Structures are given as structure tokens and as C-alpha cells.
Amino acid sequence: MFEFILANKQKLNDLFNCASQKGDLDLALKLGRKLITKDNNDYKNLNNVAMVHFKLGFYEHALIYLLKANLIHETAYHWENIALVQQALKNYQRAIKSYNQALKIEPKKMSTWYHLEQCYKEQQDAQLSC
């Protein structure tokens, strides 16, 4: 346990990635929070920790981390993840706006187009879904 407390940022990041890949999301969450405590301006860590929160169903926490990550460094990836969380919260209009922001940055990103289609489908808007 002391290795977590005294670990440097790189070691924590390695442990976080290992726990996340193994599916030990509770451990990944603990490590991720320690990572953010060490450096709360690392947008990659903020995004990764947010997605662990998302997978655990802590959508509001995920959204907070993703919005901060996107403020630090705006990317299509962040916008897409923000949209996924919004969609999980059933905030479809916000999700659609976020997907569109992602597409402004990377118009050919297929995963964004796919998730946008799924969002319209969840709203049962067949015309826009197509």
C-alpha cells in the first residue's frame, strides 16, 4: 500500500493503466484520484480517470473531469467522451451538441458518427439516425 502513497506520477500512471486494463476499476479509480492529486492539470489523466468513473456509472464525476480535461486541451476525443456521458445521462440535446463539436475538430472520425447515430436512435429519431 505504501507504494501507492509514495509512488511518483509515472509509477502511479503505470499502476493505473495496469489496473484499468485488467478491469480492476475500483483500484484504477483509487490510483486515478491519486494521479489527479499529484497533477490536476494533466488532461490525459483527467480523461482516463473520467472514463473509469463512466464505466463505474459515476456519470456526474466523469463529466466534471472530462470538462476540465477539455478546457485544458480541447480535442475531438474529449468531446466524444463528454457526449457519451451526456447520452448516458439521457441529455440527448447536449450529447448531440458535443458530438457535433467533436466532428468540427475531426470530421472523419467514424466512432463519433456511430455514437451520434446511436444517440438519435435512442431518441427514436429514425430520419436523423440515417
Blueprint (SSEs and pairs):
Layout: H1 2-6, H2 9-22, H3 25-38, H4 43-56, H5 59-72, H6 76-88, H7 92-105, H8 110-122, H9 126-129
Helix pairs in contact: 2-3, 3-4, 4-5, 5-6, 6-7, 7-8
Number of strands: 0
Distance between the termini: 51 Å
Low-confidence stretches: none
Structural class: mainly alpha
**Domain tally:** 2
Beta-strand residue percentage? under 5%
Roughly how many Å is the radius of gyration? 16 Å
Main sheet properties: none
Q: What descriptive keywords fit this protein?
A:
elongated, single chain, 2 domains, 81% helix, 130 residues, mainly alpha, Serine Threonine Protein Phosphatase 5, Tetratricopeptide repeat
Commentary on this structure:
This protein is an all-alpha fold and 130 residues long. It has helices at 2-6, 9-22, 25-38, 43-56, 59-72, 76-88, 92-105, 110-122, 126-129. It folds into two domains: 1-59, no CATH class; 74-130, Tetratricopeptide repeat domain (Serine Threonine Protein Phosphatase 5, Tetratricopeptide repeat), CATH 1.25.40.10. It contains nine helices and no strands. The model has no long low-confidence stretch (mean pLDDT 92).
